[in-house]
Design goal:
Largest sheet of chain A: 7 strands, mixed
Strand order of the largest sheet of chain A: 1-4-5-15-10-11-14
Pathway (chains A, B): Amino-acid biosynthesis; L-tryptophan biosynthesis; L-tryptophan from chorismate: step 5/5
CATH topology of the domain at 6-11 and 69-109 and 239-446 in chain A: Rossmann fold
Protein name (chains A, B): Tryptophan synthase beta chain
Low-confidence stretches of chain A: none
Strand content of chain A: 15-25%
Structural class of chain A: alpha/beta
GO cellular component, one term (chains A, B): cytoplasm
Radius of gyration of chain A: 20 Å
Keywords (chains A, B): Amino-acid biosynthesis, Aromatic amino acid biosynthesis, Lyase, Pyridoxal phosphate, Tryptophan biosynthesis
Oligomer: homodimer
InterPro entries (chains A, B): Trp_synth_b-like, Trp_synth_b_CS, Trp_synth_beta/beta-like, TrpB-like_PALP, TrpB-like_PALP_sf
Helix content of chain A: 40-55%
Number of strands of chain A: 15
Number of helices of chain A: 18
């Protein structure tokens, strides 16, 4: 038990470039304007985002430079550690080696600041002083609040109602950073009022909260919008995770055979996986790469690959992606960060190309894995991250059954310090497995927009 | 803003020895048996602690070896980073350099595992399978629960009632690690029942909770007791903090002029300060060393240096220390870890010798500092740690007023993720400054035991 546990890099080794997988993938299906169904150009996105981020969104350059002031803030916690889970291996009695990249070391507690910081920076450079966004679990909202506090930007967060109600401490964290937090659906926007009219008891959804935040930005020229996942530029920003992991694996002497991350919109998954996929796409060895999603919101495993809106009120462009339909409202289960009807276009494209696998788990099995991990390694995972832990444990048990000493690497995207209510429910037996409503899914998929380009 | 921020060491540089300040201090006043008032010998403590810890308690060896299995667990998060708070310096516009040693990177969120791990280890080596303890803020209880989960030891935690009620998530964390958590005063012990009889609405205190945990250990030969602060061996275990900081300051090129930590029982304070004091005591330069306590429980600044019991029910030995009297129950303010009537004998001795200063702050000023720190550096401090932050900011502002570029180092002993209820109360204006009851303090001090040895 005395061999090296943590594989750390010093702060000079924070990546200087983001890795853009668009350079190594086939040209993706065009993003379409929601009204005209014509391909959107950069100017169509200007009401929402500063031009630098729009250019990142459509870039096909392989490397995009990370501004020095952004890297300077990353120094507060990056490079994040790659940790060998020796005690978990021992508890499982597996010949597999299990590593995890731990993103919970960030001040906000997850990988989300990796994109919140550059998004706030590029907005500040464009003279923007106000940002709106949405948050599900609260990890993204906390991260943009943190970024806003560093750059003097006012941040308003529409927090999905069931999360807002379940997690007062998460809200308090955002307020400590100086952000304003609003329960969504709210009465402050047309989208929110429409959602409340349709269902006054709506638990909310990321789709609704996105509509509210986007609406505010569209209607107020001095306000821009920030999204914490799904979009190409967000996934791009997260690729520092995988780039660091590649360098850290050189220190371990191991090379991962299986790469695992949970996937809601796809950002922590892409962050770890894309740099490894890039190596494969440029002629390197092939590895298994697994996206893990909740069985109650099974975008990749049960969704359709089709053009759809990113939000409920259909304010966003149409993106070709794996989707359950923009009107789909998943049950109010505890991994709020995985309650999104769609999946990033790039992750969807990689799935269609057979570059990655997908797997869905019910939540009880995930919390069981989370508790086992906490008792072995000390860190209590966020409910989202327990999906990755579950899959890593199952892969390690498969290795045991098959007598294979494979190397497994998963992304521990965040800690669960603000999600202990879910653990309380788990221990008290109140937490149950939840299935999506099959009839609702069928009707939601039937309402997918008709797109001529398809 | 682009110079180095984090000063990290690799895991081979985790200290191999604890630093025992007893080697460099005059012989301290004897610890006395509560019944006989005769000096206690190692055998008197055997009902509570395994012999290895008792020997550490009374040792005068300067260096005590850290067992390799303990260091191996420390690898999960140690060495902890020394961080230059450049953004805070900038916000304060001070010529001072502010560094903090960040102990919140431990899985349990504070410095407490530094002692919980070795305590659990030495108990396990002695064949002990059950431990009891108390917890105020919850940081110590979480840490012993974490340590218990790694060594297969059953842990029962008596949590001070006001903390138990305020912090359900903290309880959930202990339960996630597999520990059992009981609100104190409880009906399970004579001490608890006596406290409830005296005051059914008692908010609890560390003194009462210690009595309960000690009573269980005394009455059950297969159960030992673990304390998270105050005792020499606990302070000893924490000295890895300061030892690492000394090495890290060599990397910075700076040398701290002022060293600051909050002090409840004294463990995080001693952990950072004693190794630096040791350098001074062995002929090195003199630095200012400041212990910061809450104005509502001002042990060093308003207490008496006298023999007193460590607990309310007078089950513990008599220790000469700064004390407010063992019957003193401080108001239920938010820094639960600082609500102890006494102060470690070694810290008290250092204070009497003029080696350290003490300062008391009201809580509103501390939370204000905590929020300022969070908005500059991202990390939300535990309420206890905000006392150190307040003092560091005040020292930096003094430097500004005096035009001095001093180097300040404080111990950020833990994060506040499980204490956001206190921040919610702060933002909503419900948090108020609280004074101790002067009449209660007078009566408590009047009840100090008469000790012939004095």
């Amino acid at each position: 038990m005395s061999a090296q546990v943590k594989f750390t890099l010093d702060e000079t080794q924070i990546p200087k470039y983001w890795y853009n997988i668009a350079a190594d993938l086939p040209t993706p299906p065009a993003v379409l304007h929601p009204a005209t169904q014509q391909p959107v150009g950069p100017s169509d996105l200007e009401p929402l985002f500063p031009m630098e981020l729009i250019l990142q969104e459509v870039s096909t350059e392989r490397e995009i430079e990370i501004p020095e002031p952004v890297r300077d803030i990353f120094r507060l916690w990056r490079p994040s550690p790659l940790i060998r889970a020796r005690r978990l291996e021992q508890a499982l009695d597996t010949p597999a080696k299990i590593y995890f990249k731990y993103e919970g070391v960030s001040p906000a507690g997850s990988h989300k600041p990796n994109s919140a910081i550059p998004q706030a920076w590029f907005n500040k450079q464009a003279g923007i002083k106000k940002l709106t966004t949405e948050t599900g679990a609260g990890q993204w909202g906390s991260s943009l609040a943190f970024a806003g506090s560093l750059f003097g930007i006012d941040v308003t967060v529409y927090q999905v109602r069931c999360s807002y109600d379940q997690k007062p401490y998460r809200r308090a964290l955002m307020e400590t950073y100086g952000a304003k937090c609003i329960s969504s659906p709210s009465t402050q926007t047309e989208s929110g009022r429409a959602a409340l009219a349709a269902n006054p008891d709506s638990p909310g959804s990321l789709g609704i909260a996105i509509s509210e935040a986007v609406e505010i930005a569209v209607k107020n020229p001095d306000v821009k919008y920030a999204l914490g996942s799904v979009l190409n530029h967000v996934l791009l920003h997260q690729t520092i995770i995988g780039q660091e992991a590649i360098k850290q694996f050189e220190l371990t002497g191991d090379d991962p055979d299986v790469i695992i991350a949970c996937a809601g919109g796809g950002s922590n998954f892409a962050g770890l996986a894309f740099p490894f996929l890039g190596l494969t796409l440029r002629g390197g060895r092939r590895r298994r790469v697994i996206a893990v999603e909740p069985a109650a919101c099974p975008t990749l495993t049960r969704g359709k690959y089709a053009y759809d809106y990113g939000d409920t009120a259909h304010l966003t462009p149409l993106v070709k992606m794996h989707t359950l339909g923009s009107t789909f409202v998943p049950p109010g289960f505890h991994a709020g960060g995985l309650r999104y009807h769609g999946m990033s276009g790039q992750v969807s494209q990689a799935y269609e190309l057979g570059l990655i696998e997908a797997r869905a788990y019910q939540q009880l099995a995930c919390f069981e894995a989370g508790v086992q991990f906490a008792r072995a390694e000390g860190i209590v995972p966020a409910p989202e991250s327990t999906h990755a832990v579950r899959c890593a444990i199952d892969e390690a048990l498969r290795c045991k059954a098959e007598g294979k000493a494979e190397t497994i690497c998963f992304n521990l995207s965040g800690h669960g310090h603000f999600d202990m209510g879910a653990y309380i429910n788990y221990f008290s037996g109140k937490l149950v497995d939840q299935d999506y409503d099959a009839a609702e899914l069928a009707s939601s998929l039937a309402e997918l927009p008709q797109v001529a380009a398809e």
